[in-house]
């Protein structure tokens, strides 16, 4: 009978083929089957021969159809083992499911290595209907899915973290309980530890961790799985017997437990001969242990045995887990997350058992009741809380505070006792009138509550903070007899509060005002100038250039010392009416009221820059720092807006290379528009509005495509296409360039992997990705490249990082180290915009570049007779250093011809094509047509 083809839509992540395949059991090693009708309606017949063995064989047959006009790549996945539906007696413990897959047309699917499943990559051409004949390694096929590759990878990765956490918790539990056995030495600890180790071994097999830790063949996995299930059943039985001290209740408990354990020991030996049978008996034993254990626990709980009572909640969770496991193995419930959820639940059961054991083992016994009086309990509570008695006998005017207050004040015994006036003499003069008024009001009104915070003078002259809480006691005559309460030393709390208040407005390193206090003072200065018609204040913001390199080279303690030295230098340069503040880590700001003329303000800014440039001595070495300075004078805006204008001027100076003094002449609207664009850039990166396009790079000798340069594109919902020269500088300023760089690296590598998947190894193209300064000079770039290569599986030499000449010259020593490490990973390196910077040939030969990109200024004719000579010299220099040459900006055939004649290797420009999406690149590579013909 003809098969009905299963359509494979483009937007579907997974298709369950388990119930749509046809199973065949052939008595020979061959199978003949009819194919599904093709697009032409013709049914064909094919014969497939077994690759695994001679004789009887098992097969499945299914057909897939690609209704779209695009080529589809899918993964055929058959897991080796599934707990769901595996059965109780003689369960299916896993094996190789699919030996080979034969299509009715096209190439045989490629097997992808996997320790947990049989995975084959299937490619369907547009409009194709293909019948697949798969030879089975065993008669059972629990599950068969057709996955979209990225979705399959995401599904696997989504469980990786969960499995790691569960394994980590199980391992820690087993190790912790083993250590407790050594420390405590009671019998229930080794039983609990054995249960924890059994659970750890079981989930290690279930999660595939056992294969990574030990060289276990697939054929031996059922034996290991059966062994761990037998061990788990035995460990649970041993724990129940040991924890409940069943041998103390009746000798028959011991007889049953010992006989049960002997049977499980025999069963453990049977795993070598029949692991499926041993596993089935172990599963039945585990369920019986849970049910019988519940009955025993209930009986002992009725008798008042505290251990049994404490175990009831944990055992209820265990019974729930056993019920869920029974529903799973019998196939009554089925879900992709069920198997890992049951493994996590098993670890949760062990965790609850461990808590129960520790709660009982380390309990200190019940508190004795009725051994102390109520008054003694209250006295102990006061001592434990750290309070001292405060008792004022109003009728006798006698105050007693106890020895604790006298000890804190360093006074002699009885020094603050006596009349209330004696006690008030030790109170701070500022707090004394308030306390006197409160005491008088309480005595006169004969009601109320005293809650006061005050200071008292110690014997050494400093003051301590105390909190007084007291109530009046009224006699039978209606008058206040006494006031009684507690007094508490709160000096540490008040000091911490004052420190918090200090830190709220002052920088804790330099002692300068912070941003909040700076803005407050700037607001006051603006108000004063507006009300009193005084000259408008000015703001100078100073931001250190590349100060992060000082912290990375010398350490943060040295960086803090340098900041403190710079703060002192700047403070000495300002007049009394001016204010200097530290806004953030390496940014300072000053409110200038002493000068108003633009020339004077520029002179102060120049003096700031000169002060920062003075080397900071660090041991035997000196640190050299530069700064970018922005100046803004008030023109009717708020304090925050004036500060933003000055900071914007600083950022403008940094974009020009730093070590600049810039006056802010822009409007606040322009500043806010720039900040809005930065915020929208972050949203675009999170929302997927940033994408990559690829401009082809061709081989000049034959005109074929050698690779592509990845170019970033931003499609703004309102502004339309935003040019890179508009949003890349903003990304540099805000730090988003790092996220953009990581995005470009991962996306380009993923697209490159997709292109290479359908091409022979010798014709793989490369992709060049631009690297920013923040990426190059941060330590994560090497790890980012390593992670991308590992995740995507692209050939390392086809991933090319482009670094501009001016960028590497910012810190050539550090750049050389980073580039060498990246080159050791196998990635390629290209030096971009060669000839436009100020590089030294001595440095050039130290960098491990394999490609040199010539700037378009040397490619396009400009009327200079020296240009062709320089171009030939650059190409000859690169070839002598063993580097390939790429010419940028080629726009007409004359330029292309000149480059071929001078020996240039590659070229890119509008002559060969503009940047294009990844899908178009895929189509071009599939056609494998040259972009330009060599003349």
UniProtKB/TrEMBL annotation:
<dbReference type="Pfam" id="PF00563">
    <property type="entry name" value="EAL"/>
</dbReference>
<dbReference type="InterPro" id="IPR001610">
    <property type="entry name" value="PAC"/>
</dbReference>
<dbReference type="Pfam" id="PF08447">
    <property type="entry name" value="PAS_3"/>
</dbReference>
<dbReference type="InterPro" id="IPR043128">
    <property type="entry name" value="Rev_trsase/Diguanyl_cyclase"/>
</dbReference>
<keyword id="KW-1133">Transmembrane helix</keyword>
<feature type="transmembrane region" description="Helical">
    <location>
        <begin position="222"/>
        <end position="244"/>
    </location>
</feature>
<dbReference type="InterPro" id="IPR000700">
    <property type="entry name" value="PAS-assoc_C"/>
</dbReference>
<dbReference type="InterPro" id="IPR052155">
    <property type="entry name" value="Biofilm_reg_signaling"/>
</dbReference>
<feature type="transmembrane region" description="Helical">
    <location>
        <begin position="280"/>
        <end position="302"/>
    </location>
</feature>
<keyword id="KW-0472">Membrane</keyword>
<feature type="transmembrane region" description="Helical">
    <location>
        <begin position="189"/>
        <end position="210"/>
    </location>
</feature>
<dbReference type="InterPro" id="IPR035919">
    <property type="entry name" value="EAL_sf"/>
</dbReference>
<feature type="domain" description="PAC">
    <location>
        <begin position="450"/>
        <end position="502"/>
    </location>
</feature>
<dbReference type="Pfam" id="PF07695">
    <property type="entry name" value="7TMR-DISM_7TM"/>
</dbReference>
<feature type="transmembrane region" description="Helical">
    <location>
        <begin position="308"/>
        <end position="329"/>
    </location>
</feature>
<feature type="transmembrane region" description="Helical">
    <location>
        <begin position="256"/>
        <end position="273"/>
    </location>
</feature>
<feature type="transmembrane region" description="Helical">
    <location>
        <begin position="161"/>
        <end position="183"/>
    </location>
</feature>
<dbReference type="InterPro" id="IPR000014">
    <property type="entry name" value="PAS"/>
</dbReference>
<dbReference type="InterPro" id="IPR000160">
    <property type="entry name" value="GGDEF_dom"/>
</dbReference>
<dbReference type="InterPro" id="IPR013655">
    <property type="entry name" value="PAS_fold_3"/>
</dbReference>
<dbReference type="InterPro" id="IPR011623">
    <property type="entry name" value="7TMR_DISM_rcpt_extracell_dom1"/>
</dbReference>
<protein>
    <submittedName>
        <fullName>EAL domain-containing protein</fullName>
    </submittedName>
</protein>
<keyword id="KW-0812">Transmembrane</keyword>
<dbReference type="InterPro" id="IPR035965">
    <property type="entry name" value="PAS-like_dom_sf"/>
</dbReference>
<feature type="transmembrane region" description="Helical">
    <location>
        <begin position="341"/>
        <end position="362"/>
    </location>
</feature>
<feature type="domain" description="EAL">
    <location>
        <begin position="674"/>
        <end position="929"/>
    </location>
</feature>
<dbReference type="InterPro" id="IPR001633">
    <property type="entry name" value="EAL_dom"/>
</dbReference>
<dbReference type="Pfam" id="PF00990">
    <property type="entry name" value="GGDEF"/>
</dbReference>
<feature type="domain" description="GGDEF">
    <location>
        <begin position="535"/>
        <end position="666"/>
    </location>
</feature>
<dbReference type="InterPro" id="IPR029787">
    <property type="entry name" value="Nucleotide_cyclase"/>
</dbReference>
